Amino acid sequence: MSLRDRLSISLKEAMRAKDATRLMTLRLINAAIKDRDIDARSIGNETGVSDADLLAILSKMVKQRQESARAYEEGGRLELAEKELSEITIVEEFLPRQLSSSETEQAIADAIAVSGANSIRDMGKVMGVLKEKYTGQLDFGKVGGVVKAQLS
Fold first, then answer.
1. Rg of the chain over CA atoms, in angstroms?
2. Is the overall model pTM greater than 0.90, yes or no?
């Protein structure tokens, strides 16, 4: 079952269950996807966005909510931080399992070998290989530092 189908089914289930938080979050996801579909059609891509692009959208949504939750906690707005954290759990249901630290290390080593990288200048090649293969499974903000350390 495609990611879009899973989202659609979950949206219908949330409507039936009258789960307001889940319904709102799923509608936000659908809105972000539709925005990206419209952008894709405007540049001539009639099929819309791929599942890899959908995973990137979801990853970005998680990251945005993590930053918002952190800001709310620092500002003493714990109820808003909790709301953001509950949205994160809903969005993460549609993301693939995150790689463990040892799996991440192995993925980086494989990407370095595949790309033939041997210096820090080749970091872009390595990141490209990782993004192509592990979108949604890695936090690329953290991975960048590890890649840099391995290449230097």
1. 18
2. no
Q: Whole-angstrom Cα distance, residue 66 to residue 61? A: 9
**What is the rounded CA–CA span in Å between residue 119 and residue 110?**
15
* Two structure tokens written together for 104: 């991440």
Placement of tokens 């872009």 in the chain:
124
- Tens-place pLDDT, residues 80-93: 999 999 999 999 89
**What CATH homologous superfamily does 3-92 map to?**
Uncharacterised protein YqeY/AIM41, N-terminal domain (1.10.1510.10)
Could you tell me which of 30, 143, 18 has the C-alpha nearest to residue 94?
30
Considering the chain, what percentage of its residues have pLDDT values greater than 70?
A: 99
Q: Which two tokens stand for residue 137?
A: 């499974």
Q: Give the C-alpha separation, 122 to 75, whole Å.
A: 40
Q: Mind listing the pLDDT tens digit for each residue in 6-42?
A: 999 999 999 999 999 999 999 999 999 999 888 888 8
Nearest to 111 by CA among 137, 129, 124: 129
Distance CA 117, CA 34 (A): 37
Would you kindly state where each structural domain of the chain is located, as residue ranges?
3-92, 101-151
For 82, other C-beta atoms within 10 Å of its C-beta total 13
